[in-house]
Amino acid sequence: MAARAAGFFATAVLARKLGADAFGLLGFATAITMYFGVAVTVGFGDIGAREVAKNPERATTIAVDATAVRLLIALGGACAINAVALVFVENELERSVLMLSSLILLPVSLDPGWVYRGLERTRFVGATLFLSQLIYLAGVLILVRFPADVVRVPPVQFAGELLAALVLLAFLSRSGVPRPSFRGGIRLLRQSGLITVTRLLRSLIVTFDLMLLGIMASKREVGLYSAAYRVCLMLTAIAVATHVVFIPAVTRAAAVGPAEVSTVLKRSLALTGAVMLPLVVGGMVLAQPLLSLLFGGDYSSGANALRLLLVSIGLLSLHGTMHYVFVATDRIRQQAGIIGGGAALNVALNLILIPRYSLVGAAAATVASEALILVASAVVLWKRGLRTRGAELLPAALASGVMAMVVSALPDRVPVLLAIPAGGAVYLAVLVSLGGLPRNLPVSGVDSAVAGG
Helix or strand or coil: residue 446? Predict the structure, then answer.
């Protein structure tokens, strides 16, 4: 969370220095790179972490085999992006930004953070991520001053991500580096096939609206939507952080039975709800002043889109708790079908709504697709005997509601920097009084619920 805060601060600085037009250009390049970047991860993060959790003594071998294949895929993806830029992008500045953005695929392929998650050593991953974001922030503060400096942003990001990946690799290989086996890497790739499809569809939901806006709307509108989306991406990263700590616990529970998996899922929902619901609700209440504070007054007109996008993040954070259950219980094919339905709905609604409603239409399409995925995922798991009624979310929901009423009642002259901690204090007070603080979280590889079962 600290790492994402540093990265988000760098984004806020960029939005102010670059202006909406140049920031929209960067957002468009990021969306395209993000979609190609899915080909680099190709499910290794999930399947690989699962295999490491099952066989921790083979962690280094699994990491080396997977990284060799990931690196080859990253090189192919970077070449594809550069080819697209050279053939289809006429503006020299836009072409340069897109080509430089493709560099980020290389450190992504080298990043072994998924191995550490399988080993339940997430603190070290967080520390290196924080280091990479500090480098990114420093580079933005020193090297970016004017809109034309947008070409300097991708190399700065590349440097921070590469250093973090190399540090993680160095500590992982202290006991020696086995010779990479492409056969082992390909085996993981095959196991990851359906997750790859799921991730591509998931990425389509996240990036299609921004890419379509880049084609149909002005650079300014893309910049406004990019700013709103950056807020949501930070919250998504926080949500993922609440999910990944349960990967080993879900993996072990799956070997015992549905009741144990349900127990872990309930705990995951409790943690995600306690962390994410106040962020989503508070962001919706303070959307306009928040955008002005973070990115400047020019971005405040994106407030309605931000409110809808925050709703989608709330839905995503809930069905994200179920993703690792699908992985651990080998129900990946079912999840791919669910995500496929959400992606199809997203594409159709974007094509219909963006020409009419621009930013708000794109955000509404995202809400609809995330709602479909949540409902369908819950129904499938319920039929498989995984019982959770959502009662774990009730304390956080009530506390968030009280917080929203208090913050909404504050006079307009109260600065947003005071409204945020005031709302946070109210939320925590109500949550504690309701006994809604999450308990029995995974700590240092010990999972009390599964061990007790």
Answer: strand
